[in-house]
Amino acid sequence: MATIDESAEGKTVVTADGTTVGTVVDADNATAHVEPDPGLTEEIAAELGWGDADEETYQLDNDAVETVTDDEIRLEESN
Questions:
Q1: What is the pLDDT of residues 14-38, one digit of tens each?
Q2: Any idea what DSSP says for residue 56?
Q3: What is the pLDDT of residues 34-47, one digit of tens each?
Q4: pTM (2 decimals)?
Q5: Beta strand pairing status for 65-68 and 58-61?
Q6: How far apart are CA 37 and CA 70, in angstroms?
């Protein structure tokens, strides 16, 4: 598990298999708010627990994050 902090703002969020799901628009200690990618499908949104893909932003917590790099946040593989 990696840690989300203020430096996450602007990073791309991708699933474990590399599918882009959105961009971090706001972040604080342990939580990021992600604006969904316009191409995000309902199926992927449901897998992420995001419900409808028409929300403005979705909350992403540390426990869902595998790694954080300079450019992206990669999510853990969902079971």
A1: 999 999 999 999 998 888 999 998 8
A2: S
A3: 999 888 878 788 88
A4: 0.87
A5: unpaired
A6: 19
Q: Which residues contact 62 (CB under 8 A, 6 or more apart)?
A: 1, 2, 3, 4, 30, 31
**In the sheet that 58-61 helps form, which strands lie side by side, from edge to edge?**
58-61, 31-36, 20-28, 12-14, 72-75, 65-68
Which runs of E-coded beta strand occur in the chain?
12-14, 20-28, 31-36, 58-61, 65-68, 72-75
Note whether 38 and 57 are within 8 A (CB).
no
Asked whether the beta carbons of 10 and 37 are under 8 A apart, the reply is no
- Cβ atoms of residues 40 and 52 within 8 Å: no
- C-alpha 55, offset from chain centre: 14
